[in-house]
Structures are given as structure tokens and as C-alpha cells.
Design goal:
- It contains 15 helices and 17 strands.
- By secondary structure, the protein is α/β, with parallel strands linked by helices.
- The chain has 2 domains: about 5-300, UDP-N-acetylmuramoyl-L-alanine:D-glutamate ligase (3-Layer(aba) Sandwich); about 310-450, Mur ligase, C-terminal domain (Protein-Tyrosine Phosphatase, Chain A, Alpha-Beta Complex), CATH 3.90.190.
- The strands form 3 sheets. Strands 4-3-2-5-1-6-7-8 form an 8-stranded mixed β-sheet, with helices on both faces.
- Helix 2 crosses helix 4 and helix 4 crosses helix 5 (about 130-145).
- It is globular and about 60 Å long.
Amino acid sequence: MTDLPLDARPAETFAEVEDALLSRWPETRLEPSLDRIRAFTELLGEPQRSFRSVHLTGTNGKTSTSRMIETLLRALDLRTGRFTSPHLERMSERISVDGEPLDDEAFVRAFNEVAPYTHLVDAEQDHPLSFFETIVAMAYAAFADAPVDVAVVEVGMGGGWDATNVIDADVAVVMPVAVDHAKYLGDDAATIAAEKAGIIKPGSVAVLAEQTPEVMAVLLARAAEVGATVVREGVEFGVAARTPAVGGQVVSLQGLRGRYDDVFLPLYGAHQAQNAAVALAAVEAFAGGGALDDELVRAAFAEVTSPGRLEIIRRSPTIVLDAAHNPHGAEAVAAALEDSFSFSPLVGVVGVMEDKDHEGVLAALEPHLAYVVCTQNSTPRSMSAAALGRSAVEVFGEDRVSVVPDLAEAIDRAATLAEAAEAIDVSIGAGAVLVTGSVVTVGEARTMLKGRR
């Protein structure tokens, strides 16, 4: 095996797998095609055809909804696989079996199963396999080996040419579509929707979250073209009622087969209630038959977690993490904070990626933040804290902005500001910190703050 490239040789440790995967084309370098992943999965014996699947796309809400779908499916005594991206803290989070990320040994084993074939694909294609294509194949191989009954698969970007799209899913879920990744997907929602609609396959059920009219028209046209059944939020299913509660919210959900009342969801915000309605409809569509058992639904939703999504990671002062990285996501977070909390002052720690609409994110947050600390994460893709600070001054004004490039120092600065304001005037309430702007920023903050605890 010594004549194989380094990233095609068997690995012994998790670190070796990380190095091998990161030596490949990064997720941000794209060549839109399914040719490489199809050639790869063919060499692997088409592992993705050994299980049924639910496939999710959309701009925001995919990961939370994937986790809800998986929890409901597991409550139905089905063995599940779940593929999500990007990861918050560790690469292995992307591949889960039975609700748990692969441990280091299983992650190494999944890599070693596919690694010997990577150079064969590289040699035959115009471009080498990317990091994302390789880890998708690892996931499908791991799910086939488990074996799982059903895989819940989140696209990486787009839909039609996303590497995950070598599956023919029973249920295709399209979360709300807005402008994001404009460089790769287009700069208007309808164009983006046309790419995302590619996961809707012949004979599938398309579960469509609430969309703008132009996006819905594109999705309905695709469903009609391939003969998919359509169910829509606000028509066939949706949130019937919701009330903020301690630790989350209580919702009533109208499903495809019945209504489910007094469901406690331990996540915050109207957007998470909508995600729950979508998840419920997807599982009902997948399972077929009549309504799900009320107690099963309540018990499953009560167990749902979604790390890095309005997650309270620390108290005194409260520090909340949310991975919102585009204006649509930032607006949902802002609305949830107003809905479920009474923080005053709320100080933001914001670190964004260079290719994101940072002005839109800042504008969505401005009415809700008393002050913002501009920072950056450790990746080369991160916008510099200084550049972000210049934009923030335009939105917030100079008196409400500071620039602290080091993320740990930025969080400490924000916590000090929140505590100081609270101490000066106890009548204003409890101060808090919101860390947001990027999945990577939130993941690094989460690792750091968990370590301090």
C-alpha cells in the first residue's frame, strides 16, 4: 500500500483521517457535478441504495429539522443514520448512527473503507474528489455497514449537484429558501430554488416549508415535472399554536394525519416551531398509514437538542450561541430572542465568513443588540475583525462597536460589558451575550466555553 497517495492509505488515528480529508479540495472549492461521487459510490458498491432516506435542503433550519426527524424516526423503532454539515466542533459530528456521532474508531473505520478507492476516482476524473464528496461517501458506507433502516441526509450546498444527491429519497424536504452562497447558487431566490429543487425525485413526497410565492412556484413546477406528491406548510400541515415556556415552548402541530397538542419543544423561537411542523410532516409522509401516537410524538420532541442553535452555554452572565450566518437566519434569531428572553443589555459577539452578507446580518441584529464586539474565527475564510468592525460602525454607530480579533478576548469583553451595565442599573434586567455570525465562530466558542466550565 506504500505506493498509494497519503490520503488513500489506511489511517490509524482520528487525526490522520482529519489530515487526509483536509488535504483534499475544500468545501468552498466547487466544481458542480455528480460525476465524481457517482463514480466513487459505484466503486463502493452503491451503499446509498441499501437504505431508505429523507433528504433536506433549504437556506436555514436544515440541521435542527434533521435532528427532529431523526428523533421521531428513532421513536418509531427505526435504526437511523444522519448526515449533516458543517460540523460545530469535531468532523465526526457529521456522521451519526442511532443518534450518536461516530466515535473515533468508527470514524477511522469509515475512512479506511473508502480511502483505497479515492485515487482510482481521482485518476479517471477531470478534478479530484473533494473533502465533502469523500465524507459523504464515508457516511453512506457507514450507514450501509451499520446497517440503518433510514438515513436523514442534509445537503451541503444547493441540491441538484450536491454530492449527497446520489440518493433517491422517499421524502424530499425543502426548508425556507433565501439568498445565500450567491457566488455558487445565484443571487435571487428563484434561481437558488431551481437548484435546491433537484433533490425532489420521481415518486417522492416533497415536504415544502413556507416559501415566498416565486420560490414555491419553482418547487411546485419541479414536483409536477417528476410526479412527486406535494405537501405544504400552511396548507396540509403547520403550527396551530405556540406559547413560549421555560426551557423552550409548547406547541400544537397540525400534521398530515392528525393534530398533536401540548407538545413541549426544548428549543426557542417561532422558527423552531415551524421546523418541528416540517419534521413531523416528513416523518408522517415517510411512515405512511394513519396518525402517529400522540405520546410518542410528545416524548420524541421533548428529547430534541440542537447544539449551537440559541443554545445557552453559560450563566452569569448568560451566553447564548447561535450559528446564524445570513440575514434570514439572523432575523429568526433576533425574533426568538425578543419572543423568549428579556435580556437587557444584550451584547453581540459577531464573527462572519468573508463570502457572507455581513451587512445584512449586522442590520438584522442592530435593533436587538445594545453593543457589538466584532471578532473573527481561526479559519482563512473568516472576515477580519477590523473589516467587520468598519461595516458595524456604519450600522451601529461608533459608540456601539469595538473590535477584538481574538475570539476568547471578544467573549470576555462582551461578558464584562453585559455585567457592567447590569450592575450600574439593576432595573434594566439581566445582561447577556449572543455569539453568532458563523457556524465556525460558534463551534470555536462552544469548545472554549465548555472547557472553561
